[in-house]
Specification:
The structure is a single chain. The protein has about 240 residues and is α+β, with helices and mostly antiparallel strands. The protein folds into 2 domains: about 60 residues, Orthogonal Bundle (434 Repressor (Amino-terminal Domain)); about 140 residues, Umud Fragment, subunit A (Ribbon), CATH 2.10.109.10. It contains 6 helices and 9 strands; from the N terminus they run H-H-H-H-E-E-H-E-E-E-E-E-E-H-E. Strands 3-4-9-5-6-7-8 form a 7-stranded antiparallel β-sheet. The chain has a two-stranded antiparallel sheet with strand order 1-2. Helix 2 packs across helix 3. The longest helix is centred in the first third of the chain and has 13 residues. The two termini are about 50 Å apart.
């Protein structure tokens, strides 16, 4: 390949590291139109030595790097996950806990026998989920304040699917504790609901679903929270769903 072709291919590889050509051009200190004319499928100009040196300096590359053919120039990859373990340990309800494990109970809705359809929320005595003791504490949650809740319906999709599970820190149960946009579990007249919460004026709350097309925002004043029997159970600090 001639020098112009080598420079062009190297420039295309560098440009591919950026989300847009405009961002790449800005990083190089030149106009997006100049970069486009050089790297387009039907290039209208060559990359001259003066601009090549300028781009090398901006990219932190050695002098003359753009003039050399490179065996492989890969797009920069930014990892967003890591493998912490391999495989899944099997366990049953009667499997003893390890020293670093705890069991978090689930909340359940219970209909009162003489309540005319009225329900209350209680802690299940049978269903539990295992967590690492230190994992929970490292998240700033005391194990005795943590409970689990099952998700039903599609209001929190796509983040939480129907049948998913969240863990809740019951110590964060005041309106004053609410961090706008975070998820919280609510006791709404004896029914468990999980929503994003936003504080509104004079102690009110806005309840938001991720699936806002089907589930619009709900807003309650402080007085309406009392009238509707709405109370914060706690802040969601962990969640999982099957997809």
């Amino acid at each position: 390949m001639d020098t112009n072709t080598i420079r062009r291919e190297n420039l295309r590889a560098l440009a591919a590291r950026y989300p847009t050509q405009a961002e790449f051009a800005e990083a190089c200190g030149t106009a997006p139109s100049v970069i486009s004319l050089i790297v387009s499928p039907n290039p209208k100009r060559n990359l001259g030595p003066k601009l090549a040196r300028k781009i090398e300096a901006a990219a932190g590359l050695p002098h003359g790097w753009l003039d050399q053919a490179h065996e492989q120039t890969k797009r920069l990859i930014e990892p967003n996950a890591s493998i912490e373990s391999e495989g899944i340990d099997e366990w049953a309800d009667d499997t003893p806990l390890d020293d670093d494990e705890i069991e978090l109970p689930f909340l359940k809705e219970v209909e009162l026998s003489a309540g005319g359809g009225k329900t209350v929320i209680e802690v299940s005595g049978t269903r539990k989920l295992r967590f690492g003791k230190y994992t929970v504490r490292n998240m700033g949650v005391q194990p005795d304040q943590a409970v689990c809740v099952s998700i039903s319906g599609n209001s929190m999709e796509p983040v939480l699917q129907n049948g998913g599970t969240v863990a809740v820190d019951r110590s964060k149960n005041k309106v004053a504790d609410v961090v706008d946009g975070k998820m919280y579990a609510l006791n709404h007249a004896g029914h468990v609901r999980v929503k994003q919460l936003y504080r509104t004026a004079r102690g009110g709350l806005r309840l938001r679903s991720f699936n806002r097309d089907e589930h619009p925002d709900e807003e309650y004043t402080a007085d309406e929270l009392i009238a509707e029997d709405i109370a914060i159970i706690g802040r969601v600090f962990w969640g999982a769903s099957f997809f």
